[in-house]
Q: What sequence folds into this?
């Protein structure tokens, strides 16, 4: 096997690794087990082993000055477009190469289990299949440019408050099917070379010192050949080395040469285990060709227009339109004299969340205001009123809001409230909520734009809003996409990668968060997100997979077929754009799997396809399901294909599923 796109064969790489390993002194090996600087590994110049320079993600290349700030990862998930994930990965790889980066500390693959998680914006939503498909392409894209992708934060690191102390207590089946799934796919199908352990504990044991997870799951079950790296400072005892952690960051503490030497002499860790850690890093270095080139590629501009275009296209497909009463959107500028843009983001948008993912954008931040100004004729007056308005101008501001032909309210969670390190409230920040409610009471023609990584409370005010956009955190230029949607230049096609509850009370979210006594019981099991709403017949405010368009689609001729492995079930359906605008729809296939023991969700997303259709156009969409149909068997501790009836549903969201059919997979199914 050759390591694409590099020309080295696996045998060649392994030979080089063993040759270097045999020439390394013990001191050189031990030094490699922890960081050289806060964001690099040790080199061994005498043997031409380079240091690896790291950069934070997941919304760009951080740490080396301004860089393209892409929309939040969850916005990419909301595009439901795997090709955009590949493009994003490739752009990130190029941004990394422009700065000499070897290792990108992303993508983030934790699950949006509760809206309060401060880092939901860094992840790919609540569904393991959507997240897997997207992350495999991100990883392939990044690594195809010669930069390592580091999957984080392994695993079930699904909230931020007390992240170091808390234990996520998850049963084996749920852990594999929901929380480990994207990591597994990114390793097996994406070929990721690095995995970062989370700060958290899983079932009582810190992940960085869990032999079950590091050796049992990552190394043995998945056959991972790359290396694991601790989160920064996320090593809590000298057990980490024996447990299977390969690299400690940012500096030697639990894996310092002294500690390791002691562990070796007391027999707590073997020389073979230490060699294996070095071997894993060397393998990644050689497979990626880091010893063969200068990593910094100065032919790539630091403010790469290609990256800027990728960022904008992600927003164009990822911003979700959740409400559009009386088709207020897109607007007709001929009928408008004055637009007022109000809210804390009117002139200073929240482009990303706080913490290690926050990027200093390389291009000027685009506001809905600046973008609209450039799109609308000069005859339409636009006034931006940052809120809350200063006391001396408040009366005038509220008057203007009340009188405007159209109001656009830009609200959300500022980076100090939605951030790594702590969680946030389900309700919008109280002062913003107060302003928003006042605006809505003054003017019925208000379009609300919210920046947030997850769901937020909207049931108490949505009735009064004319329209609602979820722009996630749109990065440096994503608000241009919002403006394009407002004027109708872009037809919204984003779909929610999360469920949007009306309230948390009475739902599984109430038990899911906050933790009690530093334990989070994942008692909902597989019934997380939309699976819970389905099973309990509760309607969320907005359903998983939902998003509005300015056109309409019609589906017909739904056919189910069975195919030879690996594509066992095929779903085909005709999709027609029956409106007057070009647009895109996401066909989603949900499957009710036969239970092989414990109860299962009524249906789970197993396949999807985004289809772009010109006005009037029809396309036949084919979705094949193979491995996605497997479930985790706790008896054999492996994936298996259940025998029995598979209920297959197809439609355009987790609740809009007009097509339903059944397929039997029997013993002979293996050979069908
Ligand atoms: C974060 C990681 C990040 C690391 C390095 C940690 O605090 O959890 O996601 O990669 O810092 O900045």
A:
């Amino acid at each position: 096997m050759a390591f694409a796109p590099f020309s080295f064969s696996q045998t060649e790489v392994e030979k080089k690794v063993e040759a270097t390993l045999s020439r390394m002194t013990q001191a050189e090996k031990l030094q490699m087990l922890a960081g050289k600087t806060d964001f690099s590994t040790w080199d061994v110049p005498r043997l031409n082993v380079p240091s690896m320079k790291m950069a934070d993600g997941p919304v760009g290349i951080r740490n080396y000055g301004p860089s393209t700030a892409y929309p939040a990862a969850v916005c990419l998930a909301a595009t439901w477009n795997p090709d955009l994930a590949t493009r994003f990965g490739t752009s990130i790889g190029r941004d990394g190469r422009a700065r000499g980066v070897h290792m990108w500390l992303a993508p983030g693959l934790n699950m949006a289990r509760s809206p309060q998680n401060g880092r939901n914006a860094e992840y790919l939503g609540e569904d393991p299949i959507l997240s897997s498909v997207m992350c495999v392409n991100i990883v392939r894209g990044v690594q195809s440019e010669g930069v390592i992708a580091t999957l984080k934060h392994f695993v079930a690191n699904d909230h931020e408050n007390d992240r170091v102390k808390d234990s996520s207590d998850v049963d084996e089946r749920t852990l594999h099917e929901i929380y480990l799934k994207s990591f597994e796919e990114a390793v097996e199908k994406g070929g990721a070379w690095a995995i970062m352990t989370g700060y958290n504990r899983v079932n009582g044991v810190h992940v960085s010192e869990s032999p079950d997870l590091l050796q049992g799951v990552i190394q043995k079950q998945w056959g991972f050949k790359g290396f694991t790296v601790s989160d920064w400072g996320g090593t809590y005892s000298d057990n980490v080395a024996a447990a299977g952690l390969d690299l400690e960051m940012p500096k030697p503490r639990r894996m310092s040469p002294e500690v390791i030497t002691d562990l070796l002499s007391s027999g707590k860790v073997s020389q073979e285990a230490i060699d294996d850690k070095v071997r894993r890093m060397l393998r990644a270095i050689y497979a990626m060709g880091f010893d063969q080139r200068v990593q910094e590629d100065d032919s790539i501009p630091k403010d790469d227009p290609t990256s800027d275009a990728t960022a904008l296209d992600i927003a164009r497909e990822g911003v979700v339109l959740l409400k559009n009463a009386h088709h207020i959107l897109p607007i007709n500028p001929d009928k408008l004299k004055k637009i007022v843009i109000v809210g804390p983001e009117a002139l200073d948008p929240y482009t990303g969340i706080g913490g290690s993912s926050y990027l200093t954008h390389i291009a000027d931040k685009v506001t809905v205001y600046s973008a609209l100004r450039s799109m609308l004729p000069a005859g339409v007056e636009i006034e931006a009123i940052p809120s809350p308005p200063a006391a001396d101008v408040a009366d005038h501001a509220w008057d203007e809001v009340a009188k405007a032909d159209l109001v656009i309210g830009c609200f959300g969670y500022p980076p100090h409230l939605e951030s790594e390190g702590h969680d946030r409230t389900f309700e919008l920040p109280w002062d913003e909520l107060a302003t928003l409610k006042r605006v809505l009471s003054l003017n019925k023609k208000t379009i609300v734009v919210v920046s947030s990584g997850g769901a937020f409370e909207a049931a108490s005010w949505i009735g009064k809003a004319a329209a609602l956009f979820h722009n996630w955190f749109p990065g440096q230029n994503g608000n241009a996409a919002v403006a394009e949607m407002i004027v109708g230049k872009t037809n919204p096609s984003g779909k929610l990668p999360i469920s949007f509850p009306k309230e948390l009370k009475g739902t599984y979210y109430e038990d899911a968060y906050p933790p009690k006594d530093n334990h989070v019981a994942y008692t909902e099991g597989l019934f997380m997100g939309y699976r819970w709403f389905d099973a309990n017949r509760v309607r969320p405010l907005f359903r998983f997979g939902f998003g509005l368009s300015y056109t309409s689609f019609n589906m017909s001729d739904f056919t189910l077929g069975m195919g030879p492995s690996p594509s066992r079930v095929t779903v085909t359906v005709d999709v027609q754009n029956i409106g007057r605008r070009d647009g895109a729809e996401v066909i989603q296939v949900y499957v009710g799997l036969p239970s092989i023991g414990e109860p299962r969700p009524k249906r789970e997303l197993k396949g999807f396809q985004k289809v772009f259709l010109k006005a009037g156009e029809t396309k036949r969409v084919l979705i094949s399901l193979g491995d996605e149909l497997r479930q985790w068997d706790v008896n054999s501790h492996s994936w298996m294909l259940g025998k029995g009836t598979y209920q297959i549903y197809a439609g355009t969201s987790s609740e809009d599923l007009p097509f339903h059919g059944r397929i039997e997979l029997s013993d002979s199914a293996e050979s069908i």
